[in-house]
Amino acid sequence: MSGREPGDQRGEEGASCMIALHPHALRVLAVGGGRVAARKLAPYIAGGAQVRVIAPELCDELAGAVQGTSARIERREYADGDVGDAQIVFAATGSREINMRVAADAAALHRLVNVADDSAPSAFSTAAQIARGPLVVGVYAGGAPDVARRVRDAVAERVGEEYGDAARRLRDMRREALASGDRESWDRARRELAGADFCATVDAGTMPARLAAWR
User: Fold this and answer.
1) C-beta of residue 116 within 8 angstroms of C-beta of residue 103
2) 114 with 29, same domain?
3) What digits encode the pLDDT tens for the residues 194-211?
4) How far is residue 82 from each of residues 31, 54, 75, 139, 159, measured CA to CA in Å?
5) Does any domain span residue 114?
6) How many domains does the chain have?
7) Per-residue burial over 150-189, b = 16 or more CB atoms within 10 Å of its CB, e = otherwise
8) pTM greater than the 0.70 cutoff
9) Are both 118 and 68 inside the same structural domain?
10) Are residues 36 and 112 both part of a single domain?
């Protein structure tokens, strides 16, 4: 028995909290140039973060991802002081010793650090995610990435691009209404268009017409 009352929504001990970061406002460091680093950096590169990579070599995937971007590549081994002003740090080398050094340096500077394949020294973990325009769905399974990916894939089958289109239109409506000081108009719109029937309306394909009629 867990000792919890019915309806108690407290998480397990050591449970995680998920937030949405805005990459364009972040300085990100990856130590390591392999596929793990490439996967972890992908959303930050795409989102316009200031990315720096320290690694003797880059895998083809990462080399292709940074090509034509402003990412700064330093082809060498990690050295003390390399964390610098990075706000987000990924330790993704093939050496546990180096990863632990990176983690310790980042923690000493109160930076958020993620160590590949080791959650103990990590301040955060990455989620398996899908993006449909501005709509991003992330799944984290407490250190069971295969589970997270399976659930992510199941969600991806359910949530198509039409959800992203609806999210984009509603986001723009909210921005316009709040910028003009017309909060009352937005309150009416969200109750009408993003109510309990939102998913059913999107699935039925009638959301574009409802949005057009509202405008």
Assistant:
1) no
2) yes
3) 999 999 999 999 999 999
4) 9, 8, 13, 31, 41
5) yes
6) 2
7) eebeeeeeebeeebbbbbebbeebbeebeeeeeeebbeeb
8) yes
9) yes
10) yes
Identity of the residue numbered 183: R
Tally Cβ neighbours within 10 Å of residue 38: 23
What would the pLDDT profile of 103-116 be if each residue is shown by its tens digit?
A: 999 999 999 999 99
Query: Does residue 36 sit within a domain?
Result: yes
If you count them, how many residues does the chain have? 215
Q: Does some domain include residue 152?
A: no
- Choosing from 78, 99, 126, the residue where a domain stops is 126
Mean pLDDT of 122-145: 91
Half-sphere exposure of 167 (CA within 13 A, CB side): 14
Q: Which amino acid is at 84?
A: G
Boundary-marking domain end, from 78, 100, 126: 126
Q: Are residues 122 and 51 in the same domain?
A: yes
If pLDDT is split at 50, 70 and 90, which confidence band does 179 have?
very high
Q: What is the pLDDT of residue 215?
A: 63
Report yes or no: 86 and 62 within 8 Å, Cβ to Cβ: no
Q: What pLDDT, in 10s, does the model give residues 125-134? A: 989 999 999 9
* Range(s) of the domain holding residue 175: 161-214
Kindly state whether residue 133 falls inside one of the protein's structural domains. no
Under a CB-based contact definition with an 8 Å cutoff, are residues 26 and 46 in contact?
A: no
Q: DSSP per residue over 137-178, as a string?
A: EEE--SS-HHHHHHHHHHHHHHS-HHHHHHHHHHHHHHHHHH
Verify that 57 and 117 share a domain, yes or no: yes
Each residue's pLDDT tens digit, 13-51: 467 888 999 999 999 999 999 999 999 999 999 999 999
